[in-house]
Amino acid sequence: MNNFGSTRNILDDFDVVQYKSKHLDVLKALFIESFGGIAEIRGALNKDILKYYKIVLDDETPAAVTGIVPPELSMFDGYEVSWTCTSPKYRGSGICAELLRKCILDLPKDGIPVFCDCWRFPGKQINLFNAMQSNGFQLLVPEASVFSTKFSKLCASCPYRHDDEPSCRCYTDVWKFERKL
Ligand SMILES: CC(C)(COP(=O)(O)OP(=O)(O)OC[C@H]1O[C@@H](n2cnc3c(N)ncnc32)[C@H](O)[C@@H]1OP(=O)(O)O)[C@@H](O)C(=O)NCCC(=O)NCCS
């Protein structure tokens, strides 16, 4: 038997929940695992944006999170994809891309674009390349931000920090998704 015509979705194997206050510790743990303290310093847990996160749970274990904040809370002229990560054990099976797709489908049908400030290591694709490309986003501004262990206190607790490498740095590139009305 083949899977031709199958509509199976990777998220069918999990629970996808909209953030509630009881998820705060779970969310914090997910962010710390993937970003160290940077996410908290940069406002990933600000109370105004928490309710926009969707969290993927494997029973009680947090597997992934993303969310899209509305224009009034975005730093761009449109919606903005908020802090996004998949726990290492769950990476590489399309969970993040599918979760982002679900967030986009839930947006009001208002034609307002969605922006995403995407993290990237030197000489590499953005970490979210598959999620951006498969959901129709396009690169708008390369190297919009540069982070370096030498100069930024944001790097202090980064899990990817190389103290022995004075040139350790990373970037964000801005991607945009144009939506039709
Ligand atoms: C970036 C990150 C969120 C990606 O999580 P993910 O769930 O693995 O992401 P995706 O859903 O895009 O899946 C990625 C991979 O699964 C593969 N994949 C396997 N099966 C798949 C399927 N059925 N459907 C889609 N993709 C599938 C994709 O080809 C892709 O491979 P690639 O990484 O070689 O391109 C995760 O690596 C992470 O948390 N990184 C650290 C934090 C970070 O950088 N966050 C983004 C900041 S902007």
Percentage of β-strand residues:
25-35%
The oligomerization state is single chain
- Assign the CATH superfamily: Gcn5-related N-acetyltransferase (GNAT)
Order of helices and strands: EHHHEEEEHEHEE
Helical run tally:
5
CATH class: Alpha Beta
User: Which structural class is indicated by helix and strand composition?
Assistant: alpha+beta
**Ligands bound, unique:** coenzyme A
Mean pLDDT comes to 92
Rounded radius of gyration (Å)? 17 Å
At the fold tier of CATH, the topology name is Aminopeptidase
- Name the helicity range: 10-25%
What general outline do the C-alpha atoms trace?
A: globular
Unreliable stretches (pLDDT < 50, length at least 5) are: none
Note the main sheet: 8 strands, mixed
Summarize the structure in words.
- With 181 residues, the protein is of the alpha+beta class.
- The chain is 20% helix and 28% strand.
- The protein has five helices and eight strands, in the order E-H-H-H-E-E-E-E-H-E-H-E-E.
- A hairpin with a 2-residue loop joins strand 2 and strand 3.
- The chain is globular and about 50 Å long.
- The mean pLDDT is 92.
- Coenzyme A (COA) binds next to strand 5, helix 4, strand 6 and helix 5.
Draw up the topology in text.
Elements: E1 15-18, H1 24-35, H2 38-41, H3 47-50, E2 53-58, E3 61-69, E4 79-81, E5 85-86, H4 95-105, E6 114-120, H5 129-134, E7 138-148, E8 169-177
Parallel strand pairs: 4-6
Antiparallel strand pairs: 1-2, 2-3, 3-4, 3-5, 6-8, 7-8
What would you say about this model in short?
The chain is built from five helices and eight strands; from the N terminus they run E-H-H-H-E-E-E-E-H-E-H-E-E. The protein is α+β, with helices and mostly antiparallel strands. It has a single domain (10-177), classed as Gcn5-related N-acetyltransferase (GNAT) (Aminopeptidase, 3-Layer(aba) Sandwich).
